[in-house]
Amino acid sequence: MNWDEKEMLKLDNQLCFALYACSKEIIALYKPYLNSQGLTYTQYITLLVLWEEDGLNISELGNKLLLDSGTLTPLLKKLEKSQLVERVRDRDDERVVKVFLTDKGKMLQETFSDLPQKMFCNTGIRVEEAIKLKAMLNQLLGNIQKL
Amino acid sequence: MNWDEKEMLKLDNQLCFALYACSKEIIALYKPYLNSQGLTYTQYITLLVLWEEDGLNISELGNKLLLDSGTLTPLLKKLEKSQLVERVRDRDDERVVKVFLTDKGKMLQETFSDLPQKMFCNTGIRVEEAIKLKAMLNQLLGNIQKL
DNA sequence: CCATTGTGTATTGTGTACAATTAAATTGTA
DNA sequence: TACAATTTAATTGTACACAATACACAATGG
Fold first, then answer.
1. Keyword annotations for this protein (chains A, B) (predicted)?
2. Which of A62, A94, A117, B78 is 20 to 30 A from B36, comparing alpha carbons?
């Protein structure tokens, strides 16, 4: 093993760990806001999607969130139990479960309307930096998906 | 809710989701390499730390990996079961458990010596881009930790 | 010396996350 | 119309991830 290889095996030199750590820490910053409404981060981003487009089925949600049915099925049942969504099996195709926001679920959007701005302040990052960073992440994600 | 607020509640406009998605997808790229050696990503980065500095205790590992004992205790017991590490309770302070690599665990480093390079190629990102991205992530992480 | 405070690990409970499998329903095709 | 292939969710099993708690031990201050 040469010097370069040894250097690159150090945790601090790994891009993946920086991503992994950043992701976890930022999600942790969301927690106080979300937990106060009885939500987790994954449940929150599921609602984000439904606020944009209601009545998606589970695989459509999974495509947008990059999550599979093993994650979404129990999560959506919890959201249903707290009466934020309704799961309705499609009459025309009984395999399909469509997910609809309840009135309570729709109203919750207002509660979180200022959360993105709040979170942005918490990170202490400049606007142009954030835009640049997101662009780089999206490009990276695009590269990976193509494989 | 004004237009800006509504825009920022869209999934695709959220930096946090870009981080979360990127992190998961890159870790997924690691899986074939790691699973072939019976390892998960979290176990791999734990070994990365130990290859740099052997004999750390659990809280020291947790500080470097940003993980708590609830995650590390069962993980280290699995690594011990597969004979890659040894958990030794400190004689002087019975609260402390120190973690040492076995010979088998030390030798595994060679097996992964070219993995960072391989992974880098898989992402299809340019060197300067990767460096820039990692710098931005580390700065963001620094900002958060200070809160 | 001893009560208090702090530290280090383990345990329990909840909630993802994903691979693999199953099961039901639909679709394509001979 | 049979029936194979595909699609869609749900289920099962393994592995994090973290909050909350418990517990043992250590350090410290009066």
1. Cytoplasm, DNA-binding, Transcription, Transcription regulation
2. A62
CATH topology of domain B40-105: Arc Repressor Mutant, subunit A (1.10.10)
Task: Return the amino acid letter for B26.
Answer: I
pLDDT by residue, tens only, chain A of 147 residues: 889 889 899 999 999 999 999 999 999 999 999 999 999 999 999 999 999 999 999 999 999 999 999 999 999 999 999 999 999 999 999 999 999 999 999 999 999 999 999 999 989 899 999 999 999 999 999 999 876
B27: three-class secondary structure by DSSP: helix
Q: What angle do CA B113, A16, A140 make, to 5 degrees?
A: 115
A138 Cβ under 8 Å from any chain B Cβ = yes
Q: Rounded to whole angstroms, how far apart are CA atoms B95 and A47?
A: 44
Distance of C1' in D10 from CA in A96, Å: 11
Is the CB of residue A116 less than 8 Å from the CB of residue B123?
no
Q: Are B66 and A24 in contact (CB under 8 A)?
A: yes
Please name the helix (run of DSSP H) or strand (run of DSSP E) that holds residue A130, with its range, or none: helix A127-146
Question: Are A44 and A32 in contact, with CB atoms under 8 Å apart?
Answer: no
What CATH number has the domain spanning A17-113?
Answer: 1.10.10.10
Question: How many Å from the N-terminal Cα to the C-terminal Cα in chain A?
Answer: 28
- Helix, strand, coil % (nearest 5) of chain A? 70, 10, 25
Nucleotide C23: closest residue by CA–C1': A95
Per-residue burial over B82-95, b = 16 or more CB atoms within 10 Å of its CB, e = otherwise: eebbeeeeeeeeee
B106 burial (CB, 10 Å; 0-12 / 13-18 / 19+) is middle
Q: A14: which chain B residues are within 8 Å (Cβ-Cβ)?
A: 45, 48, 116
User: What value of ipTM does the predicted structure carry?
Assistant: 0.93
